[in-house]
Amino acid sequence: MSGTGTISRRLVALLAIASGLAVANLYYAQPLLHELAGAFGASSAAAGLVVTVTQLGYAAGLLLLVPLGDLVPRRRLVVLVLLVAAIALAGSALAGSLAIFEAVALAVGCASVVAQVLVPMAADLAAPERRGQVVGTVMSGLLIGILLSRTLSGLVAAVAGWRTVFWSAAVAMLLLALTLRLALPLERKSPGMGYPALLRSTAALVRREPLLRRRSLIGALGFAAFSALWTTIAFLLSGPPYHYGLAVIGLFGLVGAAGALCASFAGRVADRGWARPATLTFALLVAAAFLLLLAARTLLLPLIVGIVLLDIGVQGNHITSQTLIYRLRGDARSRITSAYMTANFLGGAAGSAAAGALYAGRGWTGVCVLGLVIAASLVSVWIWDALRPIASAAAVAG
Questions:
Q1: Which residues, 6 or more positions from 173, have their beta carbon under 8 angstroms from its beta carbon?
Q2: Average model confidence (pLDDT) for the chain?
Q3: Could you say which architecture CATH assigns to the domain 9-395?
Q4: Residue 264 pLDDT greater than 70, yes or no
């Protein structure tokens, strides 16, 4: 059904909402890290590993589950994975130690890949000339879900305790599974390969498509920067001079709304062939963000502006990359998503782990220096791309 142009605005809206709700599971714990450390008697570095473990679980789901979207009907796959997510979230609510919470977080991450099944589905249903716009709209919902998850988590935890956050998320996944079971179109797929061959073909795509490799590297670096900030910000805001509580820390998720608002714009930019200059612009915004964040140790305004710029830079490049890589193979978009997003979340896991260790040893300044190194790497990849352009029709403007 690739490029049929049959997707309705109502279905686009539903896919956006569903993507946001599913991906939110990855981020509920982030504003609660200080609370979790206290509840389980753990250090900030140990609690910060919750983010790393969740992202590694998500990377595993991207690698092992998302490619199935090219093999089996995605409606069936989405419903089954959402049910697993509901069970894993209930396990988070019942956890009695940090070790158990982290073990269950691995399953939560793995089962939160539904959004990355729905995004290529939207790309398949959209007409080629609207694909960037449709993907950008669905991604806007996903990004809003990321932002609101932190805010909602902090508010609910402040009122009813952190366990209520995960019970509520489990119920939401059950309701979402029912809704999508009724609303998603039924695909007819004739499996041309078995599961092992499917995974091998994903690796083959990475080997054969230089555009996919470069955009995966850009995505990994961007998400490493994103994770470095959001893994450590709860520790910064809960300590001096801020001393903010859970509800206020959660509200900082709303500051990054600009990143979600620019998603559709970034898709349109890529549709018009301006991806290369946009990539440099977004990379420079990441660098500017961490320069501002250096002053955020004691000043609130640089923190707010830095968060806004970082989210615009990271999410802008993310949407640009997705628009470009979905031009490569219409019959392999789930596998392309798997390869690209696996790289993203491996980068995110590395960024969160490094940031947690640096914060424990070097404080907020260490985290910001890490972000600047990542931003410099992003610009270096862009320079390499400009000097050695990819000779491929699919890579036009990439």
A1: 21, 22, 25, 82, 83, 85, 86, 89
A2: 86
A3: Up-down Bundle (1.20)
A4: no
User: Which residues contact residue 356 at a Cβ distance below 8 angstroms, ignoring those fewer than 6 apart?
Assistant: 44, 45, 48, 49, 51, 52, 231, 232
- What does the alpha-carbon distance between residue 133 and residue 139 come to, in Å, rounded to a whole number? 10
Query: How many CB atoms neighbour CB 64 within 10 A?
Result: 16
DSSP state of 126: S
- Running DSSP on this structure, what letter comes out for residue 394? G
| pLDDT, tens digit, 9 for 90 and up, residues 78-99 | 999 999 999 999 999 999 999 9
Task: Give the single-character DSSP code of 327.
Answer: T
pTM of the model: 0.75
Mean pLDDT, residues 340-346 = 86
Q: Answer whether 378's CB lies under 8 Å from 286's CB.
A: yes
| 299: DSSP letter | -
Whether the Cβ atoms of residue 142 and residue 162 lie closer than 8 Å to each other: no
Burial of 247 (0-12, 13-18, 19+ CB in 10 A): middle
CA torsion 374-376-382-384 (nearest 10°) is -110
Residue 190 exposed, middle or buried by CB count within 10 Å (0-12, 13-18, 19+) = exposed
The model's pLDDT over 136-157, given as tens digits with 9 standing for 90+, comes to: 788 778 878 887 888 899 889 9
Q: How far apart are CA 301 and CA 303, in angstroms?
A: 5
Give the start-to-end residue ranges of the domains of the chain: 9-395
DSSP structural state of residue 66: G
Could you give the 3-state DSSP secondary structure of residue 190? coil
Q: Which of left, alpha, beta for 191 (phi over 0: left; psi -120 to 50: alpha)?
A: beta
| CA–CA gap between residue 325 and residue 313 (Å, rounded) | 18
* Token duo for residue 135: 């993907």
Q: Say which range, 31-35, 262-266, 277-281, 389-393, has the weakest mean pLDDT.
A: 389-393
Tokens, residue 56: 């590694």
CB 235 within 8 A of CB 246: no
pLDDT band at 6 (very low <50, low <70, confident <90, very high): low
Cα–Cα distance measured from residue 267 to residue 71, given in angstroms and rounded to the nearest whole number: 27
**Contacts of 305 by beta carbon, 8 Å cutoff, 6+ apart:** 292
77 vs 80: CA distance, rounded Å: 5
Given a contact cutoff of 8 angstroms between Cβ atoms, the answer to whether 356 and 274 are in contact is no
